[in-house]
Design goal:
The chain contains 7 helices and 9 strands; from the N terminus they run H-H-E-E-H-E-H-E-H-E-H-E-E-E-E-H. By secondary structure, the protein is of the alpha/beta class. It has one domain: Cobalt-precorrin-4 Transmethylase, domain 1.
Length: about 220
């Protein structure tokens, strides 16, 4: 009898701490906590915006490096004065966490990447642009290599003939993680310099020409 009870408790604990339940717990706790921390961090920092031409009046593709993305959703809101942004996010579990965080920030998500669900994500991005929403893409995400440009951003911009606006965030003081993207976390009370490039079109360029142009513009103010 005792052995049977112990086995029952063991099975219950195993189920409770299963991978699925662990992920459910993380999805419940991590996005709200990250939302609060990001808002507080953004609030404590001094912001400087470098903008020549504000292109937020028309649906656009916003491109930025994966390692610089932490502060950019809030910078987009200050730049565009709206939250009509759908971010292309991978179907991995970490992408699910980011999707819920973007939702808390007022945006939407497009699930898929160049490695998984690319065709569906491409169609969804086109629908977003057709509906008057902006689309955010990390050309080197979700797995790198760092500062590379995948074909998805070019394909979407060419098919819809919409402008691309590059975004960069350069903190005066920051931590840099030892990840493939060298993910940057600004330090509290630092200065955040945001660079929004002038809108440009690539639908008349070849794939290689467009990728090279996007990369060069993003590298101009990269960390």
């Amino acid at each position: 009898m005792l052995k049977s009870q112990i086995q029952s408790v063991w099975h219950f604990m195993a189920k409770l701490f299963s991978k699925l339940n662990q992920r459910r717990f993380l999805l419940w706790i991590v996005p709200p906590l990250a939302f609060v921390l990001i808002k507080l961090l953004y609030f404590t920092c001094k912001k400087k915006f470098h903008i020549n031409t504000n292109g937020s009046h028309t649906p656009s593709i916003y491109a930025f490096w994966h390692g610089e993305l932490l502060m950019l959703p809030l910078a987009y809101i200050d730049y565009a004065q709206k939250t009509s942004l759908d971010a292309m996010i991978s179907r991995h579990f970490d992408g699910e966490l980011i999707a819920k965080l973007i939702l808390l920030l007022g945006g939407g998500s497009i699930r898929g990447s160049s490695s998984k669900g690319g065709t569906e994500a491409l169609r969804a991005a086109i629908r977003s642009l057709r509906n008057g929403r902006d689309v955010a893409i990390t050309p080197d995400g979700p797995r790198g290599p760092r500062h590379s440009v995948a074909e998805g951003v070019v394909a979407i911009a060419a098919m819809k003939k919409v402008p691309i606006i590059t975004m960069n965030c350069k903190p005066s003081r920051y931590w840099k993680l030892k990840s493939w993207d060298e993910f940057c976390i600004p330090k509290p009370f630092s200065t955040l310099e945001f660079y929004f490039g002038d809108p440009f079109f690539i639908h008349e360029m070849s794939m290689d020409e467009a990728k090279a142009l996007i990369k060069n513009k993003l590298l101009e103010h990269a960390l």
